[in-house]
Amino acid sequence: MAKRDYYDVLGVAKGADAAAIKKAYRQKAKELHPDRNSDNPNAEAQFKEANEAYEVLKDENKKAAYDRYGHAAFENGMGGGGGPRGGQGDFGSAFSDVFDDLFGDFMGGGRGGGGRRSTAQRGNDLRYNLRINLEDAFAGMQKTITVPTAVGCGACNGTGAEGGSEPQTCPTCSGMGKVRAQQGFFTVERTCPTCSGMGQIIKDPCNTCHGQGRVEKEKSLSVNIPAGVETGTRIRLAGEGEAGMRGGPTGDLYIFIEVQDHALFERESTNLYCRVPVSIATAALGGEIEVPTIDGGRSRVKVPEGSQSGRQMRLRGKGMPALRGGNTGDMFIELAVETPVKLTSRQREILKEFDQLSEENNPQGSSFFDSVKSFWDSMKG
After folding, report:
1. Whole domain around residue 373: which residue ranges?
2. What is the pTM of this model?
3. Is the domain of 225 the same as that of 125?
4. pLDDT tens digits, one per residue of 228-287
5. Is 170 annotated as a binding residue?
6. 128 pLDDT more than 60
7. 154 and 140, same structural domain?
8. Residue 274 among known ligand-binding residues
9. Are the C-beta atoms of residues 310 and 302 closer than 8 Å to each other?
10. What is the full DSSP assignment across 155-192?
């Protein structure tokens, strides 16, 4: 099959200048790259054809020979400079000319287009888990914490170099932090093994930080814990994280709050719940009980006559404050009618007598057993 005209392959007019040829090739390479055309079985052959055309037309001498003799210019050694080997062209040379333009966004820049890699790297963010009790969550507090972290080295001012010397450009990657290697049809980019991707090397590292620009140290911080925090609340302290590498910006510190369980109160959002035991006599006759509140105070609550276990009473405004302002929650008192234990003989006599006299005073029991009788009767039917 006869070869197509190289100008037709790239879609440019004869006599097009180098800029137009390169632009056309870039467009073709994008359209025909096999990785982007897995469903097109002809893509690889068309891609190679475009590379072969560009390999000839990008070179002034080869282009002049091709304009004069056509494809015959590269047959039997004609045209000088040895045209496309085996009719395929120097794929690596042609493709690498526009590699950066095509994939620079994905590979981190390219020759002549990305600039040198900065050695400064932002420090890591740190996490600190802080446990507080419910009383502190109610009132808010100032808490001093000690955080192990990395801080900028004072001996070298964070540069990592001894005596004020400057880092030098890495000779392996020329400051890019990455190196490229040709593997068949493709150019592979890897982190530079000499500078570990930093782009620079330190000939005379600081004796204190060994070239890192930072040292391990504990620091104390005063943290404001606002009233109303709950488990999972996150507090951010900007710039209090790990120091950056070689003068890079400092990371942030995130404090995660965990509010411990309380012996008396259970929390649900801004509301508090307190389960209070009451005697049978108080529940039956009614009366008053004294209950604690989260602020350390006391409140008297009236127990209605005939109260049952599980009955709740509300104390408005005695709960937790909302974290970001607004109303304060409520406190709910839940009654737990307590059955007495270890009865004396006299108490047993009184309770037996009371039980005989109170058959009509147990509405829930009467209702339940009436329902049980109806159930059994229906089963017999």
Report:
1. 345-380
2. 0.55
3. yes
4. 999 999 999 998 888 877 667 888 999 999 999 999 999 999 999 999 999 999 999 999
5. yes
6. yes
7. yes
8. no
9. no
10. TTTTS-BGGGPPPEE-TTTTTSSEEEEEETTEEEEEE-
